[in-house]
Structures are given as structure tokens and as C-alpha cells.
Amino acid sequence: MRPKHSLLLALLLAGLFMAACKSEKKDGAAVPAPPQRGGPLSVEGFIVKTKHLAENLAVPGTLLPFEVTEIRPEISGRLVSLNIPEGSPVQKGALLAKLFDEDLQAQLKKLQVQLEIARQTLQRQQELLKIQGISQQEVDLSELQVHNIQADMELVRVSISKTEIRSPYSGRLGLRNVSLGAYVSPTTLLTTLRQVNQLKLDFTVPEKHGAQFTKGRKVDFTVAGSRRTFTATVIASEAAVEAETRSLKVRALVAANDGALLPGVFANVLLNMGGSGQSLVVPTQAVIPQARNKQVIVFKNGSPEFKIVETGLRDETYIQISEGLQVGDTVLTTGLLAVRPESKLVLKKVE
Fold first, then answer.
1. What 3-state DSSP class applies to 319?
2. Distance of alpha carbon 110 from alpha carbon 89, whole angstroms
3. What is the DSSP code (8-state) at residue 259?
4. pLDDT digits (tens, 9 = 90+) for 96-122
5. Candidates 3.40.50.300, 2.40.30.170, 3.30.2420.10, 3.30.70.120; correct CATH number of 58-65+194-273?
6. Distance, C-alpha 316 to centroid of its chain
């Protein structure tokens, strides 16, 4: 090989080597360093303290009329009279509707004539019996005939009374569903009668508080569209807790309704379950529910310590700890799902 060619080949190889080194340095600068693992986890904590805790519950409720009745006829027939002023109050015993009853009236008149004749016959036979002109058996049969006719007349009168639909109590009528002249049956809904001067309030409470809602207890509630707070008195509760919801149904009475409340509206029932005095409390988010117990994570010298606790009353922010913690313990309030028994912790905020 000639010296000139050897020199060119050496220069070419040196240039390729330098270009490769620059490219390698450039690529190495673009690759970030791997993150460090095993560093401490930043968490927030809360120092356990004592606080007066009162449990206030807000549960949904429904206002119901004190009485509500669907007005339907007892028998089938044609409406010949209709007196249902929609949305108006009616008194107990007021005639709301009348069915055709002329056939029954005619039958009653026929029985009245038969009764008069049977009574006259009985009177004559009783006179004959005094002079032994007739047997006692014939007199008894005539007397039985009188009683049978009287019983038939009573049955017809009952049938006539069924053609009259009257208000069973004083209340307010709903909307009318039939018109005069319509043929109705016991399945026909004429209207609805509600007693709204008094209302009932139905709501449910958790099973652990069920024993506190005895007859006579006062509860407060509010309704949409009104800034007033109303009061009701507990009158009864169900005899058993609902298995699906683990709650107890309670019924209270709203004694006086001045027109501000309507049946069927939603009510927000405010329940004051009382206080517990000075109690150990932690934020509600610090408690971890488990299958059979509840836990909190206590911060101890940079390490977590899982403790089983017993809880009591709670409000919107705090929950009572009746067993498992002491005043001054620091419990974690953030990062609860990421903390493991071997985790290293650092507190970035303590309340």
C-alpha cells in the first residue's frame, strides 16, 4: 500500500471515530437518570385531641295527609247527582254523589203495602184467637210474615243507602274523575278525599338510633320553597328494622297545618342525636373501614403503625374514638391507600 493511501485511510477512520463519540455523548445526555426508589412518602397528619361532639343527622322524609281515601261507589249504577267541588273542603256526611235508585224505591213501596196488609191480617187473627176461632199456629205464621216483610224492607233501605256516596270525614276533595250520567262500578274512582289540617311525616333513621325515637319526641324539618323550620311529634315507629337498609321507619304528626305544607312534598328532617361531652376525635377520613373492624394509621418515628379502633358519634368533620388511641397520637389523613407497614413516612402538614 502506498504511503499516501495509508494516510487518507487513517484520517478517514479517525473522523468516523470522533463522529461516533459525539453521537454517543449526545444520546447519553438525552436519557434521564432513573428515579430514586425507596424514598419517604409525604403524608399529612392530625394530632388526636378532645372535643365536644354532637351528632346531627339530616335524613329525607315525606309529608303525608293525616287521612286519605279514594271515593268509590259500593254498587254499580248511573250517576243522577254529582256534588264534588274540586279542591274544596267538605264536611263529614256531605252527599258527594247519588246513583239511580227508583227501582229500589218502588220495591220499598211495594213492601210497605204488603206490610200494612200483613199487620191487619195479624190483628184480625189475634182477635179470633181470643174467642178460640183460630189456632195459635196460624197466628204465629202471620206474625212471622210481618217480620219477614220488615226484614226485606230493611234490606232495600240498605241498598238505597249504597246509592248515596257521602264524605266519611271532613277534608279536602281532589280532582273529579267522572261526569254526571256516567255509569260507574265499585272499581270507578270518583275523587280523592284528604284530611290536610293535620299531616304525617314519615322518615327513617339508622338502626343504632332507633331506640331514641319514642312516642312524644320532637323533630324539626324543612321543606323546599320555605325558610321556616317546622316541628313534628313522633307518634309511632315500625315494629322491626328493615333488613335491606338497616333502618327504622318512624312516623311523626304535624299538629297544625296553616296551608304552608302540602301532602307529598319532600322534607329534610333534622335530627339532633345529642352530644358525648369531651371525647377523643379524629377526622372522618382518617378511619379506614375493614370487613370486621375499623383502623387508623398512627405516625411513629417516621413509620406507620396500624391500630384497630372503636368509633362512636360523628358529625360532618370528626368522628369519636372510644378505644384504641390516646391524646397526642398523630394519625394520618392522606395517603392512606399507599401506606404499607414497611413504608417510610415524612409529615408535610400536621393539624
1. strand
2. 39
3. S
4. 999 999 999 999 999 999 999 999 999
5. 2.40.30.170
6. 22
